[in-house]
Amino acid sequence: MKNWIRFFLCMAIIGTLTACGGQSSSGDTGVEGKMLAQEVQETSVEDLPVHQRTAWQNGTGFDPETTAILVIDDYGGDIYGDTTPEQEFLNAFDIVKAGRKANLPILFVNDAHREGIDLELELWGEHGLAGDETSQPLTGFDVQDSDYLLVKRRYDGFFQTDLDLTLRELGADTLIAFGTDTNICVLQTLSSAYNLGYKIIVPEDACSNELGVGTHEGAIDYFDQCYGARIVSTETIIREIKAVA
After folding, report:
1. Number of other residues whose CB lies within 10 A of the CB of residue 79
2. Angle of helix 2-21 relative to helix 28-46, nearest 10 degrees?
3. What's the structural domain count of the chain?
4. At what angle do helices 87-101 and 234-244 cross, to 10 degrees?
5. At 154, which CATH number?
6. Strand ranges (DSSP E) for 14-152?
7. Are 59 and 36 contained in the same domain?
8. Beta strands in the chain (DSSP E)
9. Rounded distance, CA 157 to CA 176, Å?
10. Which domain holds residue 23?
11. Same domain, 25 and 145
């Protein structure tokens, strides 16, 4: 706070000196003004926060008793049929399969928009409609009765849903989270997860940027810098899951 007060005082002095500069014959006032301006600039730059990685981000592993797998908007039912899904989805299938073997809770949070009224439909057209088979998790996940299927009507899986309540009742404070779209629903959901105090692990190669909003790499970097997420590969997280199975 003192530095900011100093900043404003310096600016006021610079303004005064600048106004008087034209009346000074020596030119000393102009030099003083430049020196003060440089000092103010250096002070303001020094005051900016510097990003630093957390102990969580630099660590490895997780507590299986307090960790859940959260799959965000990887839906479409049998949309792929006999064709092979993209690698990101294959990675997601493998993570969920490993998680089940380790008895980790598996939660799916998918769009379930109400036709004709949901705001997202104005921007993106009809998709993920409530009751539609294509709003169900991809068949490659082989959903089990022990899994938790939750629905949402906005990008954020926590907004106006019982996702947070369900996770807390499961005793989860750590999320292995991934899905579609990296820059939209995954980003918005992880924002709430961070604000609610969850520790986050993101297998970046199990996230998909299908709609082309921003870049996948930019979103992953954002998760790292702004949400304190631990960014890993599918191979790494599966190895860590197997270690606690």
Report:
1. 13
2. 160
3. 2
4. 10
5. 3.40.50.850
6. 67-72, 106-111, 148-152
7. no
8. 67-72, 106-111, 148-152, 174-179, 199-203, 230-232
9. 14
10. 2-46
11. no
- Could you tell me if 35 and 18 are in contact, meaning their C-beta atoms sit under 8 angstroms apart? no
pLDDT digits (tens, 9 = 90+) for 156-180: 999 999 999 999 999 999 999 999 9
User: How big, in percent rounded to 5, are the helix, strand and coil portions of the chain?
Assistant: 50, 15, 35
Two tokens, residue 105: 């809770």
pTM exceeds cut of 0.70 = yes
Residues 61 and 37 placed together within one structural domain of the fold: no
Reference 131, options 117, 151, 116; nearest CA is: 151
Distance CA 73, CA 137 (A): 8
Higher pLDDT, 203 or 42: 203
Residues 118 and 231 in one domain: yes
Distances in whole angstroms, Cα of residue 74 to Cα of each of 96, 138, 202, 208, 237 = 12, 6, 15, 9, 18
- For 67-120, how does the pLDDT look when each residue is reduced to its tens digit (9 = 90+)? 999 999 999 999 999 999 999 999 999 999 999 999 999 999 998 877 877 778
Spatial distance between the Cα atoms of 162 and 176, rounded to a whole number of angstroms: 18
- Tell me, yes or no, whether 101 and 127 share the same domain: yes
138 and 204 fall within a common domain: yes
**Residues with Cβ < 8 Å from 87, sequence gap 6 or more?**
205
